[in-house]
C-alpha cells in the first residue's frame, strides 16, 4: 500500500510576525468556500485544502504550488488532525495491517507537538489519541465477541541518537556505548534486545510513555527550546487472540528529529555533533527517496540506522507521513527543501500503486512477497518488483523489431519472456533443431512462391527475387540472433543479479550476526568493568550463540556463574550512575584503568589474547577513542603511581608536546573542531572532518568527569583517530603552511 502525505503548517509563535508569513494552504477549487446551500440551509463547508503555496525564493512574484493528500493550517486542532488522518487507520490495525505514522520537518515546525503533543486533553497529540482509540476498540472487540477474542497491547520505544539505537525504557546511564544492534529478520529490521512492555490499559501506557520520554535526548537550541536530538520510534504491538488464531499487527509512530541549518542554530559542539548526525540520516533518507523515485537499482538505506528501520520497518500496509512546516520567511529554503522531499515521497506512492498488479505474477516465496508489499522504501535490487514477468514481457515486446514478426509471421505466438529465455540458451542454439527451425521455413516459402505466383516471370527476375528474399531472411536472422543475444544477456544479468542478492543477503546476515555477537561482548565487558556481574553474565550468554566454539567465552561464563553463586545475595551490585549522556562512555574508563593495575581480571586478558578475531573487531568498535584513551590511561596511571619516575614523565610529555610550527598549526586546526576548517586540510573531506570532530566529542564524554576538552597533542595521536591513519596525517601535514 501507499504513503499518504499530508502537510501541517504550525501557527505563528508570539515572537513571529504575520508580515513574514509566506506559506499558505490552499485549495484546488478557486472558490475555497462553498456557497451556502440556500435550499438545505447548511452551514458553508470549507473544502479540504490540498495545496501549499510558497513564493520562489529567487523571485518573490512567482509562486510554487505543491499538492498533497491534505493540508492543515495553523488553526487545525489536534483533535481534527487525528480524526481526519489517524482515526481511520485504527480499524485497519485491527484487521491485521501494520500502520506507520511519521512526522518529518525542519526543527521547530511542530513534529513533537503533532506526535506527542501537550499534557492537556485537547493538546494531546497523535500518539496518546491513537492509543486511546486502540484501547476503546479493544474493549469493543472483546465485548462484541462475548469474551472469545482477547486483545493484548505491548509497547516498545527506542531512539536513534547519533546513529545508535537506545531503548527508551532504559535510563541513559544504563546505556552501552555501542547501542542496540539491528538485525534483518525475514526482510524486517528488528532491534535486538529491545524491551517490550505489556500495557493492559491506557493508564499503564501513559505512565510508561511519559517515563520513557524523560529518557529521550532533547536539548534547547536557538530554534527550539525543547528540540528533539534523536529520532524516536514507538512500536505498539497489538495481539488479537481468537481461539486458536492469533493476529499480530504493529502501529509505529515515529517522531523524526528535525533537520537544522547550523548557520541559524548557533549550536555548540555537542549540539553540532548531534545535528550532523540528524542531518546525515535525513540526507540519507532523502537520497533513498530520490533513488526510489528515479528507479535506481541501489537504494542507500543501509547508510543510516534510521533509513534502515524506516525502509524495512513496520509498515505492513498504511504509511502516513505528516510534513510539518513553519509558516514564516526565516524557514524559506528549509521549507522548500522539505516540500521537495515530500513531493518525491508522494511520487513513490504513485509508483507503488502502479506496481501493485505486478504481484500477480508467478508465485514467489511467501516471505519475499510479503516483504515487498510491506516496503515502500525497499530497494529494487532486493525487491520482488525486480524482474517481474509482466514487465519483462512488455520489455521484450518493445525491444523486438517489427520486422522479425513480419518475416516469421507463421510462427507460434510470442511466448512469455521466460520461454524465450529458455529458447535462447547457447546449448540450444548449437543444436540441430535450432538450425532446422531457422532454415526450413524460408525454404518452404521460396517453394511456394515458385509454384504459384512466378509463372511467366523471367529467370533473371526470379533470381533477383530469390536474392532479395535470401537477403531479407539473412537480415531477419541477424536480427533474431541479436535478439537472442540480448535475451541471453538479460538472462545472465538476471541470474547475476539474483546471485548477487543471495550473496548480499548472506554477507549481511553473517556480518549482522557477528556484529550483534560482538556488541553483546562489548556490553558484557562494560558491565564487567562496572562490576555489574549478573548483567555481564547475561550479555556473555547472549554472545555465546554467535561464537559457539569459543572456549574462553565458555570459561568466562562459568567463572562469572561461580562468582555470582558464591556472592551473598543481600549485597547489591555496585552501579555507576553518572550524569548525562556521556556517562555511557565514561563507564568504560575504569575498566581500562583496572587492567593497568595488578588487580586486573586476568581471564579477560586471556580471552582477548586467545581470540584475535574478537580483539580486532572490538578494536573496530572502540578504535575511535581508545588510542588516545590508552595513552592517557597509561599517563594517568603512571602519574598517580608513586613508582612513576619524574624523568620518564618528562620524556612522555616531551614526546607529546614538542612540535614543529607546521605540526602545531595542524593540531590547532584539528583542536579547533571547526568542521569547515578541518575539511579544507589536504586529503580530508567533509565526512572525515565530521568524523574527527565526532571523535573528539566522544573523547570529551570519556573525560566528562574532568570537564576538560580532549585535545590531540601529537601527530601520533592524530593518526589514531577513527578514519585518519598515518597516511592521512602526512597528507594533512604536507598541505599545511608551517
Ligand atoms: N500546531 C501547533 N499548535 C500549537 N503550537 C505548536 C504547533 N506546532 C508546534 N507548536 C509549538 O512550536 C514549538 C516547537 O514545536 P516542536 O517541539 O513540536 O517542534 P519539532 O519539529 O518537534 O522540533 P525539533 O525537531 O527541534 O524537535 C513548541 O513550543 C510547540 O508547542
TrEMBL record:
It comes from Talaromyces stipitatus (strain ATCC 10500 / CBS 375.48 / QM 6759 / NRRL 1006). PROSITE patterns: KINESIN_MOTOR_2 (PS50067). It comes from the Eukaryota. GO terms for biological process: microtubule-based movement; mitotic spindle organization; spindle elongation. Keywords: ATP-binding, Coiled coil, Cytoplasm, Motor protein, Nucleotide-binding. One of its GO terms (cellular component) is cytoplasm. It is found in: Cytoplasm. Residues 422-440 have a biased composition (Polar residues). Residues 412-449, 565-614 are annotated as: Disordered. The keyword RNA-binding does not apply. Belongs to the TRAFAC class myosin-kinesin ATPase superfamily. Kinesin family. This is Kinesin family protein. Residues 603-614 have a biased composition (Acidic residues). Transmembrane segments: none annotated. Residues 2-348 form the Kinesin motor domain.
